[in-house]
Amino acid sequence: MKTTILVLLTAVLITGVGAAAQKPRAAYAQTQVVSEQCDGNVAIVPNDDDPPDAPNAMVLRRDDPDAYEWLQIPGNGKTVRWYCKDNNFWRKFDLREWHFTSVYIDAKCAQTGDNCIISFNVGVGTGAVNGWYPETSHCSRESVKFARLDSNQGFEVRCT
Fold it and tell me: Can you tell me the distance from the alpha carbon of 13 to that of 6, in angstroms, rounded to the nearest whole number?
């Protein structure tokens, strides 16, 4: 009986010390860093519908050393709307940038009902504005957000 109690007491003590030595789970979830790819300048806009040259847009320029430090960015919610300035010729052909703007189907037939000609027109467009490509980053919860450029041609958003 003494041995059983001693073993149980030792197990409880070891478990308690081990749990106390671990960091609380909340400490792991407090900060989230989202890394994005953008080798140009970045414009962060406060509202989803704002263009990159909106009056309240925050522009991080690669030639500005302050852009590599964490800066608090405006906005509420879980989403950060930003634009990447990319003059790369091949970016224009990235299919992820294109979307359908209209689809039009028309049929013209002779009065007799034969000799029909069907025309099919598809309009495509891109969300790019003068070389600024729209992007979105997501935080796992509503939080205060910070952003910076990184030296590896990337862009980072920190949610705290």
Answer: 10
